[in-house]
Amino acid sequence: MAASPVRRVGVIGGGWAGCSAACELARLGDHVVLLEAARELGGRARRIEVNGRILDNGQHILLGAYAETLRLMALVGIAPANSLLRLPLQMHYPPGSGGMQLRAAPLPAPLHLLLALLRAGGLERDDKLAIARFQSTARWSGWTLYDDCSVSALLERYDQTPAVIRQLWRPLCIAALNTPPERASAQVFLNVLKDSLGSRRSASDMLLPKVDLGMLFPDRAADYVRRNQGKVQLGARVQGIIRGADGWTVEVAGQASECFDAIVMAAPPWQAKALLEPSVPGLVPEFSYEPIQTCYLQYSPTLSLPQPFFALLDDPAAGDYGQFVFDRGQLDPMAAGLLAVVTSAWREPEDQKGSDAPAAQASTIAGQLARAFGDPRLLHPQWSKVITEKRATFSCTPALQRPPNDTGEPGLWLAGDYTAGDYPATIESAVRSGLAAARGLHQSSSRT
Fold it and tell me: Between the CA of residue 327 and those of 35, 50, 239, 398, what are the distances in Å?
C-alpha cells in the first residue's frame, strides 16, 4: 500500500530554486511553507529599491533554451512574450570599436548560424573558419569531453584564433559561467552551447527581462503557493534545523519553532552548510565564489543606444572593465536613458578601493562607454549606482564535484544552482534544481 504523500514541507530560501520547489510541491498537492530571511523573494536575482527607484540587483539575460524556467513562468501565470524581449542570438560591438558584428538569421538550425557566420562583420576568413571548426568538432564529439579541462585549453585544442577568443568565446564563457576561461570548466561550457547553439533555432534566442526580476517570477510564484493552500513568510530567518523521529523542526528567529514532515533546503550554499552542519555534516561542500558587478548609469531620457544591448571589448589594463551594456529604456519605457553595464567575474582594481570606489568605478565605466560609442555625452551621467554581488555564483572549475539534490537523509533535499547538474549557476539551473528536489521528495514519500 502506498504511503501518504508528504503533507507539510518547509522550503528554506526564497530564491529562484526555492520558489520553483515551492510551486512544484504545491502543484503536486503538498502543503508548503516558504521561508525567506529577506523582505524580497528572488535571492541573487531580485529587485531592490535605490533612492525610491526600483532596480534589479544585477542585469540578467535568459536563453530560449531555458525550457523549465519558461514552463514554470507560464504555470504561475506569466506570459513570457509580455515579460521578456526575445532577440535572435547576436554578438554586436559598438560600431567602430573594433569588435565583430554577428546576428543569427531567421532560418532553421543550423542554417541560422551558418548564414550569420557568412555575413558576420569584423572577422577575417580564418576567424570564421575557426568558429565553424569549433561548431563542427563539438557536434562530432557529441558536445562531450572524456576528461574535463579549462575552456582556454579547449579553445587551444580547437585551434581558435585570438580574435575569435577575445570577441566571442571569452565573453560567452564569462557571461554563461561567470568564470574566466583560464579556469572555467570546458564541459559545462559545452553543455550550455549544446542546448543553445547546438539545438533548435529558438533555443539560441536571447531573452531580456522587460520587468523587474521580482515580477518576472518570484512574485507570481508566491501567489501560486498561497492559492494552493501554502504560506510564504518573508523576514523569516532560520537559525537552526533539528532532525526528529517524525520529521524536522525549524527554528526561526523571533518565532515559534515549526515542524515539518520534510524540508527542501534552498538557501545559498554557504548558508545551507551553516544550517545543516550541526545535524547532518558534510552535505554541502566548500565552494569558491565569483562576483558580478552591475553599474547603472542614468542619462537624459532622450539618450538611447542603437539597439537594446551591445558587447564591449574589456581590457582591464586599459581601465575598460565593462563586458556588456544594456539600454533599459528599450526594455521598459519608464527607464528611458538608463544603461546597465555588466562585469562578470569582477575583480576590484587596486586603485579603486575604499569608500569612494563606487563613484570611481562608475566614472571609469562611463569613460569606457564614451570611447566605445564615440559619444562624449556618455561621460556625464545624471546619477549612477554600482551593485556588486560578491558571491554571485560558484567558480565553475573543471571536474567540480557538486552535491546531489537527494541528501540520502529521509525528508531532506537540496535545491540551488550549486547542486549537481549540467549547467553552471544560472536561473535555469536554479529552477531545474528546485523542480528536481520537489519531484524527488514527492516520489520518495509515495513509495511503498
Answer: 35, 18, 41, 34
